[in-house]
Amino acid sequence: MTAVTAQRPRQPSRFMAIISKAREANIVVLSVISLLIAGAFGAVLIILTTPSLLTSWESFFSHPGATIASSAKLVWWAYESLFQGAVVSFHDLSTWIGNPTKANLATVLGPLSSTLTYASPLIVAGLGLSVGFRGSLFDIGGQGQVIAGAGAALIVGFSLHTSPLLQVPLEMVVAMLVGALLAGACGALKAYTGAHEVITTMMSSRIILALLPWFLGLGFIARAGFHDGASKTVNPEGQLPLLLGHISPSLTLNLGFPIAIATVFLVQWFFNRSKTGFRIFMVGQSREAARTAGINIKQVTILTLALAGALLGMAGMLELTGIEQFMSTNFGGSYGIDAIAVALVGRNKPWGVFAAAVFFGMMQQGGQIMEATTGISQSLAIVIQAVVAFCIATPFFVCDIFKLRGGERLAALETSAGWA
Amino acid sequence: MSMVAPEIITASNLRITSKARALGYGITLVLFGLFEVLAFGRTSTALHTTIQFAYDSAMVVPELSSLVGVVVLIVGLGLVALGVGPRFAPERFGGWARWSKLQLFIGGVGVLLMLWPISLWMGVNQDGQLRDWTVDVAYFCITLGVVSIAAGAVLIWRRFDRAAPILLYCGIVVFILAFLVWAARYAVAPAPPLTLTGVLWGMMLFSTFLILGAVSGTIGERSGVVNIAIEGQFIAGAMVGFMVADVMHNTGVGQIVALVTAAISGAVFATILSVMANRYRANQIIVGVLLVSFATAIAQFIQGQVLTTDAVYQNTPVLPVWALPVVSRIPVIGPVLFDQNCFVYLTIALVVLWHFLLFKTRWGLRVRSVGEKPVASETVGVSVFGARYQAVILAGLVAGLGGAAFTVAAGNQFTWELTSGYGYVALAIMILGRWRPYGAMAAALMFGFTDSLSGALGVFSQQIVIPDAFISALPYMVTIVVVSGLVGKIRPPAADGVPFVRR
């Protein structure tokens, strides 16, 4: 009897298994690579635009170590202050641990609080965009809906003196209604005439932006004594209450953040569990198949854009009543545009959108601190934000360069199709 | 957009659709006329408006005696009739179905000949200067309104299908004229005149970047690649052009180099877009939007880090104004078209060039075929990717040059907000222009006109019931109406935005 020993299949070593695992394209690997690319890009920009560093590179061949060290030092300092300005400063943390007073706690919580404050409207706006993308509709003119929603909330906000329990929900409903009407009208144009939503929403946004100075100049809107387009302020009853106000009034985190988290849960339920959410998804995947299945395409198209518009209007209301408290001609910054990138980076998943919006908020807040400490323009944070968005939303490119497998799966992101 | 089966185009079918269109146009004309009579004509007869025909007094119209003037007028009228007449005559009387170039030329010469004595009789040229023309607001608007109503009524009655579009366009121009006269009315003599040529001159300059952006979009989409990143190319072109011009101290050569580098920076963005669209088959709209945010971010960074701290970048370059020798002396048309910033000439030349390239050359046919049916094009041996790369990158040159219009041509300091979303407007203009360079130019002029007008009407803002915010918003409303297909059907290139997969 000869013992036949079966040839065991060659197991890859544990190390190779990890490498192989890392080469599977998934969102974590992609995010890490995107952050690294963005960081490298930002570093190059810092070096190129800092004259003292540029001159040090002239002596690169005589003193390579010193050159690289001085460049790396500035870049590291920039990124360090970016992080500390966005999340938490370790120096302040150790001070608080040594001396736990309220004032020190407020300093520790300060950066995170302003990051989340900035992020809250962006979360809701990004969710609005992702609802549109879910149905393969691109609401590129979200800025107009943000402003229109905020304008409606403003009128309620300064004209009523009721309890916050009544006034805040009322503002929210009015803002969502106006946003939904504006975007729903574009949806109706798409459904009944075939006008592409990218053009109609963009044009409606331009119309709103053109009419904003006129709106702010109206007699009952304009603040007395101001001529350069500033509106009245929202009454205290209509403002979102601060959450950490008892620690220090400088902590701006307000009720908008819990509202945004609740919206994330709601949208997640809507996408995964609700009938309407599934209809929107079906229409987004294939209009023809959805029509064959008996879905009213026109109705769903209008509904999708109306929902997106409602969320964007709500984002405007959160921005108005939580942060700015009055409207001016540049109200809302670039929330409508940033929301597009947020929805793409979050890959249309509610918690992904949440993470992306918090990341954007970190970049915004950290950038300001970075400019204050290192003198490098805070727009560096926006560059990093844009590069990360580009790498995550077009994963083919990154997967091809880094030889990651399965880029097709990642790229299967439901978004708007071409024209017509 | 739902697919509609193509209609069979026969002569009788065409007549049926165009007869219905003539009815609609006639009703529109009557409504315009009623509005002119009822709204604008209701003003007090004591109110007047002064229209200035020239923005400066640099031009002279040769003098004519009255008798010779009549002869010139009659000759001009005859030429116009000769040029325009056959277009409107019914086919059975030998009418021509299309405009021929000879007709247009004869008609144009006739219009110019007519303008000459008319401008002299209006007393606008007694001391070598074009002058003002003061009209009574109520009578002027009522006259225009009655003419418009009459034209509309005749159109409703007879359904001149061929004359209908021309009559409608004339009606729109007349309506705008009536609005201007009504908006600039005054009771006391020393009032600010509304400079008609100034408004039109500004229209040309304001629309250059819109024209270039829309032409760029047209080229890309004709090849089947949606370029929504025109805004990003504008920003890149504006920034690079500004910086290069300033580094080279705004000399003539420096400005030319600035224009070239601006164009190249637009092409760099176009290259990224076309690699993403062709090699990686990415969603072109998404890539475009992200490219715009990338360009905005870079521009913000450069502005914050370099432009504000460096003493070099403080000058604002501006391109010279060239008055062409003879033609710039034609009343109204001369100062508007032929006494312009030389960037306007460049823009018009590029539009003509691109119309020629797209519609008259073999390369253009290939590009258009790739945008309509890439599989068929590949079957006959056209390189789909090659044509798309070439078209998109060349289009990037045009868009980058459009960016230079903001800084190098207009003489503005660069800020990242300078382009303020006009790249997206260019996209809408491309659709309004039906994916044709000349159409894009016409649509862009409309946007340029309202931009220029809302600036010029700022003086009269007290007495205009409509706030100028609505005038600024008007072209966007028109865009929505047109894109909705309420005025004619819109058909994009068939393979627009669809990545090509080689089989």
Structure description:
The complex is a heterodimer of chains A (420) and B (503). Chain A has 420 residues and is an all-alpha fold. Chain A has a domain at 121-376. Helices cover 71% and strands 0% of the residues of chain A. Chain A contains 18 helices and no strands. Chain A has helices at 14-23, 27-49, 51-56, 64-86, 90-98, 102-134, 142-159, 164-193, 197-217, 256-273, 275-285, 287-292, 297-324, 335-345, 350-374, 379-393, 395-401, 407-411. Chain A is globular and about 70 Å long. The model of chain A has no long low-confidence stretch (mean pLDDT 86). Chain B is mainly α and 503 residues long. Chain B folds into 2 domains: 11-195, no CATH class; 198-454 and 462-483, ABC transporter involved in vitamin B12 uptake, BtuC (Orthogonal Bundle), CATH 1.10.3470. Helices cover 65% and strands 4% of the residues of chain B. Chain B contains 17 helices and 5 strands. Chain B has helices at 11-40, 66-88, 101-121, 137-158, 164-183, 196-222, 230-247, 252-279, 284-307, 333-338, 342-360, 362-372, 374-379, 384-409, 422-432, 437-456, 468-483; strands at 48-52, 132-136, 194-195, 321-323, 339-341. Chain B has a 3-stranded mixed β-sheet. In chain B, strands 4-5 form a two-stranded antiparallel ribbon. Chain B is globular, with a radius of gyration of 25 Å. Chain B starts with 10 loop residues before the first helix and ends in a 20-residue tail after the last helix. Classes of the chains: A mainly alpha (420), B mainly alpha (503). The interface between A and B is large, with 54 and 52 residues.
Backbone CA Rg of chain B? 25 Å
> Architecture of the largest domain in chain B, according to CATH?
Orthogonal Bundle
**What summary fits the major beta sheet of chain B?**
3 strands, mixed
Task: Supply the number of helical segments of chain A.
Answer: 18
* H/E element order of chain A: HHHHHHHHHHHHHHHHHH
Give the overall pLDDT of chain A as a whole number. 86
Weakly predicted, low-confidence segments of chain A: none
Morphology call of chain B: globular
Report, as a whole number of angstroms, the end-to-end distance of chain A: 75 Å
Instruction: Give the beta-strand count of chain A.
Output: 0
